[in-house]
Amino acid sequence: MLSDIYQKFKGIILNPIETFQSCHDEPLKTTIPYFIAIISVFSCLSGIVNMFIVGVISFFYPGMNLELIVIISLLTGLFSILYSIITAVIGLIVISLIFHVCIYILGGRKGIEKTIKATIYSFTPFALIGWIPLVNIVAWIWLFVLEVIALREFHGVSTKRALLAVLIPVMLLIVVILLAILAYFIIIKTGSVMVV
């Protein structure tokens, strides 16, 4: 089983199209162990990085003794691991539903299982390098590119339709974030909430 997970991981990184085509017909239940494996690795590495960062920052904070720094660092690492696992599971469900609605509207009719598989497999680069600060920007881009390829392969739609299925929700999210930031600055500047 571990060698299968490793081979799939390697295939998605080095040759995603061929890998997606080869696992097109496998049931979702065989994809779940892969998801558990990559989320476990990502969560542990992310926890270690966060533990280290908090430990270094705490070391320079006045009045912190070594015992307290170690406790805070360990708790941060543990919380980070749990947080990563919980958000990955919730994120998988929410993101898969959003992408599925979009791909369905654009002609993808192969079922939500294919969309869930596409979302799981597209998370692979994020599991590989997403836990590294600043480098995770590359992981996000790679993740979106793989999501487009996976949706195209699993749903049998054109690249253009798969790209739209990914870009529409991403662009909507960016617009919502920008509007929230704008609203925040308007509230700060005026000191009150504007009623329209």
TrEMBL record:
It is found in: Membrane. It comes from Methanochimaera problematica. Residues 10-179 form the Yip1 domain. The keyword Transmembrane applies. This is YIP1 family protein. The keyword Membrane applies. It is a multi-pass membrane protein. The chain crosses the membrane at residues 34-61, 81-106, 118-143, 163-187. Keywords: Membrane, Transmembrane, Transmembrane helix. Pfam families: Yip1. Its main location: membrane.
